[in-house]
Amino acid sequence: MPAQGKSKRKAQKKRTASPQLKHKSSASARPSARPSARPSTARSNSVKVAAQFPKRHDVLFKPERKAYVRRVQSKDALEACVFCGALEAGPSFDSLLVYRDHHAMVVLNKFPYNNGHVLILPTRHVGDLLQLSEAESRSIQALLIKSVAALKDMYSPSGFNIGINLGAAAGAGIPQHLHWHVVPRWSGDTNFFPLLGGTKVVVETLELTYQRLLPYFSA
Ligand SMILES: [Zn+2]
After folding, report:
1. How far does residue 128's CA lie from ligand 1's centre (Å)?
2. Do 116 and 162 form a contact (C-beta atoms < 8 A)?
3. How far apart are CA 214 and CA 219, in angstroms?
4. Nearest to 98 by CA among 137, 59, 151
């Protein structure tokens, strides 16, 4: 229909007249330096996508993580929960269980992001936040605060990351059993090691952290 055709042409004209697109097209076409050279359809599409992308950010691809997520989702992982195993074994350096009350517990993270990285969990094997009872929520909150107080006294960190990865899609290593991370942070404690070497440098041994943490929960 003529009216539609006209407005379509108008819209196309408008798009090519966008100063950003015009600038990018001419910049990318510059190497050919032929007046008749026109950008290919693929190139102009990619320019459009780049211009539409809402926010620039860096992405680090870690395809090997997929195998790990698949593994923790497997049937074996469902049957053997390390947190329930630690609870059953009782507090010791071997189990990394520091403290437990009736509803919640404190466990040292076996693969710490930083010195003093602890996990706070319900004693019950539950992966759904909405299934927590009020008593469980209160115990978890109390142990979160107690852990922060202990770690502050032990390490004098500049800050903390405290949080939960809810579900495997959100990055939870063991999604079947809720666990809150408490990670002490110091200014400048992130360097190139975790990014390039896949290795986090933690200066204190787990055993020493465990021994230092125990007295704060035995009172
Ligand atoms: Zn469990």
Report:
1. 12
2. no
3. 9
4. 151
What is the full per-residue pLDDT of the chain (219 aa) written as tens digits?
Answer: 444 444 554 444 444 444 444 444 444 444 444 444 455 565 666 555 555 555 566 666 666 666 655 655 555 555 689 999 999 999 999 999 999 999 999 999 999 989 999 999 999 999 999 999 999 999 999 999 999 999 999 999 999 999 999 988 998 889 999 999 999 998 878 766 565 666 677 778 999 999 999 999 986
Per CATH, the homologous superfamily of domain 64-218 is HIT-like (3.30.428.10)
Q: Tokens 């691809």: give the residue.
A: 61
CA–centroid distance, 132 to ligand 1, in Å, is 14
**E strand spans, the chain:** 97-100, 104-108, 118-122, 159-164, 180-185
Alpha-helix runs per DSSP H in 58-99: 64-72, 75-79, 82-89
116 DSSP 8-state letter? T
Query: Does the global pTM surpass 0.70?
Result: no
Q: Where are the domains of the chain?
A: 2-52, 64-218
Distance (Å) from CA 99 to ligand 1 centroid: 16
Residues annotated as catalytic (active site), given as ranges: 179
| Residue 139: CB atoms within 10 Å | 21
Q: How far, in Å, is the centroid of ligand 1 from the Cα of 180?
A: 13
Give yes or no for a contact between 180 and 164, defined as CB atoms under 8 angstroms apart: yes
How many whole angstroms from 122 Cα to the centroid of ligand 1? 9
Which tokens hold the place of 16? 């090519």
